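User: Second chain of the day. Same drill as before.
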Amino acid sequence: MKEDVKAKRQRTNADVVMDDRYEKLRSKNRTKHLRRSIFSVITALVLSIAFIIVCASLFLRIHQVNITGSEFYDDAEILETSGVETMQNLYAINKREIESAIMTNYPYIKNVTITRQLPTTLSFLIEEDLPAYYVEIAGEYFILSDSLRVLELCSSEAEARTRSEEIRRLVAPQIIYAVVGQNVRFSGNSMFVYTSSMLEELSETTLYEKVSEIDVSDKFSITLRYDNRFDVMLGNNQDIRAKASFAMGMIESFSAEAAGTINAENIESGYAIVDKRD
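Assistant: Same format as last time:
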């Protein structure tokens, strides 16, 4: 009986040793299998990427370029400036460089968005600034956008007026810098913010629709020319909308032939001097 128990114990210890060796072998095999699986996945991924690159280089060629949104410039000129050519690889182009080149050469264009439309089309979406004002500097006339960016240099006031039916003359404080494609600079650093913010507020009023001239040469005495009939005095840039609404109310109370001066510097004590009324 004792011999049977002893033999059983011996077999059990042997089994434990064998089981331990077997488990180590299984673990080693699993590690090998995992490494092979990872290697297979990486190899497949690399091959897939290589396949995509080859397909892109062979098949994703530019066959068509669509240009939309340009009113001031010819599409063919924009395409030539971009440097994009047919049969060029769709992903070989540098979108930022193209966008920068177009905006540098065509000042009326303020933004270009380039998109790829697989498999063979490239699209340019052009966003342009509109001529909002013109300003005279040393006998030359500069076209400005509503954000006071210089769009063009004209040789005469008559030429400047042809750029838009709604363009307005801007009499501004001393401008020391005016370069096409960039914002104007005034002699005082704060005047750009002062002028642009005032014009933005004024543009949202009904009075603005028939304003032909805006004089901000004195920031404490802003004056407008309305419908070639009224000179409207607004004072400083405080409460521009309220002052414009007050002035518009007085103008509408007169006949269509009436002309004169509207003082809206203070909406509580404003007045009008009219040359002709019903």
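The helical segments are 2-59, 75-82, 95-105, 157-161, 191-203, 240-252.

User: Great, on to the next one.
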